[in-house]
Amino acid sequence: VFLQLQVHGFxxxxxxxxDEMAEPYKIIDSICNGSVKINGSNDNLNSYITSxxxxxxxxxxxxxxxxxxxxxxNLGNTCFMNSAxxxxxxxxxxxxxxxxxxxxxxxxxxxxxxxxxxxxAFGDLLRKLWAPGGxxxxxxxxxxxxxxxxxxxxxxxxxxxxxxLAFLLDGLHEDLNRxxxxxxxxxxxxxxxxxxxxxxxxxxxxxxxxxxxIVDLCQGQYRSMLVCPVCNKVSVTFDPLMYLSLPIxxxxxRTMTVTVLSTDGSTMPAPFTVTVPKYGRxxxxxxxxxxxxxxRNHEKLLVAEIYRSKIFRVLxxxxxxxxxxxxxxKLVAYRLPxxxxxxxxxxxxxxxxxxxxxxxxxxxxxxxxxxxxxPFLMPVGDDSxxxxxxxxxxxxxxxxxxxxxxxxxxxxxxxxxSEAGDEPHLSDDFxxxxxxxxxxxxxxMNEPLSISDFAKPLTIHxxxxxxxxxxxxxxxxxxxxxxxxxxxxxxxxxxxxxxxxCLEAFLKEEPLGPEDMWYCPRCKKHWQASKKLDLWRSPxxxxxxxxxxSFSRYFKSKLDxxxxxxxxxxxxxxxxxxxxxxxxxxxxxYAISNHYGGMGGGHYTAFVDIDYHSAFKQCEYLKTxxxxxxxxxxxxxxxxxxxxxxxxxxxxxxxxxxxxFYKRVSDVx
Length: 669
Description:
The protein is an alpha+beta fold.
C-alpha cells in the first residue's frame, strides 16, 4: 500500500519544538509498521517522521535511499522558485555549509538583512531536501520569509527564476555577512597605476565590507572601461559580479523593405530591401539601409512608420527591438543632412482642398514644399516622348525611373517656381496650416516664418487643389511597400548559437544609450560614451543567465534560440583578463533552470547532476548517510515541482535552458 503522510500544523522554523506534536508522533510510530516507497527506494515510515530540525535520521532497513531527490510542492505559480532552489540546493559547497553549523555566522545586526530569518528558513528547507527518504516539501515558511525581504515575491503571481535567484543570493549574503561594522572606504584615483594593483585594491575594499559564503563562492570581478567620444578620456573601474547575464545573438535573419525619400528634391522615392537579424535592433536596420542606399558621409537617415498615410511615429531609438516592426507595416527613411545640431523638421500633411479662398502669395514654407514635390511632377505628353531620356536608379531590388521637373510644361513650371507675390494665381494651388496649436492656424504668405525657431518638428497641413493633384504623381506616396510580404508555407530552420558567442556578445564594446549618458571628468559634460566589459576574476560557482526575455516601450518577447553550452568543459581562459591568478578557469555544468512556454505563461523545471562521490566528499553529515552504492552514483535528474525523474545527459541541452550553473574544476595536467 502506497501511503503518503503529511502532518499539518508543524512549525518550519529551525530550533523550535512543538510538545503538542510529540504524542501524535508516538501514535504514528506505533501503528505504522509497513514500508513506503519514496524515489524508488523502500524505507520505514518511522525513519522520517521526526522533528524537522533534526538532521540525523535513520536510513531504515528497507534498502538504499538516494539522497537529494526530494521535490518541492507548487504553492501556486511557485515553479520559478522551486526550479532555482533545486539548483542552489544541489550546489555542493552550499549543501556542506548549511548542513553544518552555519548559525554561528548569522549577522543579526545587519540593517540590510532580515535578522537571519531568511538564512534560517533556507537552511531548514535545504536540510529537509537532503533528509533520507523525505517526502515532497511545501516551502511555505521559506516563501514567507523571502517575501519579507523582497515584497515583490509575496502572493502567487508568476515570476522570473533568475530574478528570484538574484534576490535570494543577495538576501542570504546580507544575513550571513561576517562583517558586523562596514568600514567607509573612499575610492582613490587609479589613473596611471597598473591594472593588477587597481583591481586588487577594488577587490580588497569590496571584501572589507562584504564577506560571506555567497561572496566566497559566487562572486567574481569584471573590468568596466568607458571612453569619452570627445576627449578620449578612459575611465576604468572594477566591480563585483554575482552572475553573467548574456545576450543571445540572433543568427536568424529577416528581410525588410523601406522606401527611401530625399529631402532636397533630387531623386524619386525608391524601395530598398535589406537583410537584418530577426531579433536585432533598430541600429542594425539603419546600418544595413545606409549601405544599401549609398548614404553619403554628410547624410543621415530618419526612419518613420507610416499609418493611414501619416507619420505614426519616428523610430529614433537605436536600441529598440526590430520585433516592434511587423511585416505588414510600412516604413520610410528620409535622407537628412548630418549637422552638428539637430535641424528643425517640417512635416507636411496632404489633403485635397474642397473649397478655394482668397490668399496672399509666397513663403519659405511654400518653397520648401515645392522642392520636396519636385520629383513627383507628372511628365507632359506621351510616355514615349521621354522614355529614352528617363534615368534609372538600380538599387539591386527594383528599378525606379528618375523623372525630374524638366519634363513639366512651361506654364506649370512658371506656376510652381515663381516667387510669392509675383504670381497671384498661386493661391489656387495649395493652402498651408500650422498644426502646432490648439486649432489649425493659416500661414499667411506675406508673413515671414523662421523654421529654426521651432525645437520640435513643425507639422504643416497642406490642402491640395484638384488641378494640382493632376500634375503630381501622388500614388507613389499612397502605395508604399510593406516591410515584408508574407511567404506561405515557409519553414525556418531552428536557430542555434554557441554559449561562447553569447559571451563574446556580452564583452563587445557598445555605445551607451541616450538615457545612460556618462559624465566625463575632463570635459565636464555628459556624453554618450562607449563601454567595454571584461571578465577579470572568475568565481568558484559561475551562474550564467541567458537573456531570453526582451522588453521595450511597446513590445516584449521570448527567444527560443537553442544555445549550445558545454557540459564537461567550459573554458574561460581566453576571456578572463587577469592572468596572474593561480585558479583554473575551467568549469563543469551541474544544474540548469529551464523555462518552457512564452511571455503569457510558462513553467519552470530544473535539471540537476548529482555526483555524490565528487560533490559531497567533504560533507561530514552526508558521509554518514551515503552508502558505497551511492558514492559511485552519477546521473542527471529532472525536478518538476514535487516530481523527480532520472533524465539522460543527452536530453538536458534544450532551447528551454534559462540559467546555467557551473562549478570550477582543476586544470588537467
